[in-house]
Specification:
By secondary structure, the protein is mainly alpha-helical. It is about 75% helix and about 0% strand. It has a two-stranded antiparallel ribbon with strand order 1-2.
Length: about 325
């Protein structure tokens, strides 16, 4: 039995996902412990069962736990979106940040805030999704050469469109007199401010969209082998590709609306999953969900620890890890 086939058994898949889930619980527990306030396992247990002091409950339930949940949801969403885009576009370098989708979502969110429309929990995510979707459509259109998708043109189009929209963000900051520090934190990704109302809207939608993408795994396997192969196997390529782009843009836009631009998660995590578990999306996509959550929670811990008591934007941590991987993949 081949290595690829081994990893497709239900027992193996259940074992892999169980191990990743255990890692997620472990890194989340570490994240609860890490911070300027000295809180141990006993105090956390007391808080979780309804005891503990008011100060401990505030730190654990209002500061650290919402931040961990945000990191989990964003990391999982960006990872599964990156894995899906790599299969849909048949490009190992495709991911929301590199394709400029994150920048489009940021422009949409900035537009909603600058126009004073960001007070309602649903408005900023809606604008952010619209911006991400428009950029996805633009990059996909620019990536076509002679009627077919050119992976190199697609990548370059994404980089250029992303750079353009980043410039638009900085110009909007100057025009609307927004604080430069706020724009800086948004462009580098920031998990320190979690709006409960927005998160209650965004979180379930991101989880649902991620689950739907996981159910597209078999179709994505066939599309990654070629449209002709997928059509012969009975896959409606146009419908699956359209749904995949929509869901990836939705996840990216929603993630940007609550955390800013966090790059390279959708590039790094799916490739690590493929190296560890094989290339079948039926294991890569669900593993990316869990490993993406583990990765971003871990990066958030580093962002709080490396220069404590100061905090580094989490997007800077993911870029420091992801950029060398991007260069390695680009050379390959």
């Amino acid at each position: 039995m081949s290595r690829q086939r081994l990893f497709l058994t239900r027992t193996r898949a259940a074992f892999v996902l169980s191990v990743l889930l255990a890692f997620l619980v472990l890194v989340s527990l570490v994240s609860l412990l890490v911070g300027p306030a000295d809180i141990g396992l006993g105090e956390i247990w007391n808080v979780l069962r309804g005891a503990g002091t008011v100060a401990q409950q505030t730190v654990v339930l209002q500061l650290r736990l919402p931040r961990i949940i945000l990191a989990m949801v964003v990391g999982a969403g960006l990872s599964v979106a990156g894995a899906a885009l790599q299969s849909l576009l048949r490009n190992p370098l495709a991911e929301p940040y590199i394709l400029g989708i994150s920048s489009g979502g940021t422009v949409g969110a900035f537009l909603a805030i600058s126009l004073g429309l960001g007070l309602a929990p649903v408005t900023t995510p809606l604008f952010s999704f619209a911006g991400a979707g428009l950029v996805m459509l633009l990059v996909y259109t620019l990536g076509h050469r002679g009627g077919s998708l050119d992976p190199h043109a697609l990548l370059l189009s994404g980089v250029m469109v992303g750079a353009f929209f980043n410039a638009v963000i900085l110009v909007s900051v100057a025009v609307f007199n927004r604080e430069l520090q706020t724009a800086y934190l948004w462009l580098l990704g920031n998990l320190s401010v979690t709006d409960t109302g927005t998160m209650m809207v965004v979180g379930p939608l991101m989880v649902l969209a991620s689950i739907v993408l996981v159910f597209f795994a078999r179709s994505l396997n066939l599309i990654s082998a070629g449209d002709e192969t997928a059509l012969q196997a009975g896959v409606n390529v146009g419908r699956v590709r359209g749904a995949g782009y929509f869901l990836a843009s939705l996840i990216t836009g929603l993630a940007v609306s609550v955390s800013g631009v966090i790059g390279f998660v959708g590039l790094l995590v799916p490739h690590v999953c493929r190296l560890m578990f094989g290339f079948d999306n039926r294991i890569v996509l669900p593993a990316s969900v869990l490993m993406g959550a583990v990765f971003l929670v871990g990066c958030d811990i580093l962002s709080r620890v490396v220069l404590a008591p100061s905090e580094i934007p989490v997007g800077a941590i993911t870029a420091a890890v992801g950029a060398p991987v991007f260069i390695y993949l680009l050379k390959k």
